[in-house]
Each structure stands twice: as C-alpha cells, then as structure tokens.
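S.,

Sequence below, as promised.
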Amino acid sequence: MTTTTTKSVASSLVAILSATVLSNTVHAATYSVNLNSGSSALAAGDVAGLPLYAQPNYNNVSGNGPQNGIVLKDETGSTTAGVTLNFTGTDLWNSGIGTGTANQRLFQSYLDSTDNGINTFTLNNLATGLYNVVIYTLPDSLDGRDQSYTANGSTLFVSSGAGAAFNTNGFVRATATTQDGAGAVGNYVQFDNIPVTAGTPLTFSGTARNFRTFQNGFQVIQVPEPGTFASLLVGAGLLLGLARRR
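The prediction came back faster than expected:
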C-alpha cells in the first residue's frame, strides 16, 4: 500500500469516526412529541425539530388532557424501553403557520391550558442519565402573551412577540429568567443536563402568565456519557497520527 493510499484510508477513517463522534454528542436516545390536531400529524419519516436534534419518528399525540400512560417510541421507532407520557392540558388550537414542511407541522398545533393555568408533562421509565429538554412554543397570535417553563428547579420565560415568527425567523430560543426580561421572545425553550435516575420520572411544566400556555411539542434527548465519544476521539487521533507518520 502506497503512502498516499495509506493517508487517504486513514483520513477517510478519521472522517467517519469524527462524524460518529458528532452524532453521539447530539443524542443517545430521543423521544419527540408532536401535540397535534390531526391535520398537522408528522409521518414516521418526517424529520423535524432543531437542527441539532432533528429526528424522525415523532409521537403524534392528539386530544385534550389529562392523558396517562401514552407509550412513546424513540427516534428509531422502537418502544422497547417502555417510556410513557402523562400530561395535562385543556384544548388543541392551530397557530396558522401552515403545514408545508415538517417543522411547520410541528409548530402548526398547540396545546393550551385554562386561563392562568398550568400544563404538566411527565415521562416515566427513562434510563439513568442526563437529558436535554426542548419545548416548542408558538401560539396562534404573536401578541406578547407570556408563559414560564420549569424543569429541574429552573424556570425560563417565553413571550410570543413578533420576533418569534417561525416562518420569518426560524427557531428562536427564549432564554429569559424573568417575565418579559432580556431574551424572552422566542418559539422554544431548552433545559440542559437534567439528571434522571431509573425509576424516577422527568417532569416539566408550563405556566400561563397573562392568558394561557402554549406547547406545540417537545423533545427529550439523552446526553451520551463522555466516555462514549471520548474513546472515539482517541481512535480518530491515532489514525490521524498514523497518516502523518507515513
């Protein structure tokens, strides 16, 4: 094998390992839920969500709450983990942004609450680990209505101002820690590294601050253990070193 061929093979293997590393840093298991009214259901092959977490096999959940024991499939379509969802909510409405793309269908319907009410979501039977939670939040009017979300003792606020328009601005993360504070306008919130122990549920809730809550859907993403991709990085480094020596 020539030096050029060896370097080419090594470089290709490094690229493959690097892609694998990146994939593993994104998620270990993902449970994605589309709260929809039927016309905005996502097909199994539809890929939706933030670019970093975009996945197929959303769970289409229709109807009002409370509902309990909904079995969720992961991003591969498997339900063998036995993860279930319980949630509360009052009614489903449409945001009116259209259904032409998978992400529009994700944002098209939303679950609301009673006036000044609270919607709570609980996932059971998750594996032990850390999880990121992304909640998509676009109502039928960009009128500045406010809500807050709480998970793992932290609270974030989101406001449906004009800057939250998905068709114009795409995904906009709300990061405010006070009502109408800096970074409040957005169409999703995200909580990172929520610890879960097997047998302990993961719960998050949305609270209306001046009308009703609004949830289009959400994703719960398991964060891989550092060792999962650290070993891959070591392998990639060894291959790169081999290519350079030759």
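The two ends are 11 Å apart (CA to CA).

Coffee later?
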